[in-house]
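Continuing the series of single-chain predictions for the mutant panel. This is the parent chain; the variants come on the following pages.
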Amino acid sequence: MVTNALSLPQPSPLPGTDTIVPVLRRTLNQKLENVDAIILACCALHNYLKKFAPKYITHKFVDRENTTKATFRKGDWRTITDGLTPLQHLSDNQRNTEGNEVRDKFMKYFNAEGRVSFQDKMVNVVSI
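Parent structure:
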């Protein structure tokens, strides 16, 4: 197996697909109570593949930022996808009070004790 004496083919996507997990390429219509379990399963699969499948994610595949030089390099993942699916705008009052409170709590934290030295410099460098 190590020397591939049997000439086995390398793992590849299923015929007719462009990815090994095509189900993640479309909107998942799930019950709210199942969402956490689905996300955790995806994270576990991602971590497993990162550890045991060297070609799963390469150095050039992910975005890279250099906070010392204030540079940002977009990863190759952007060439194989249209990016994130935009959320549907429902109304001007889309967020509820609890959502606003959580957002404000994060904003205060990251602009105070959670602040990092390079954050202001990088805000203008990274354009997503």
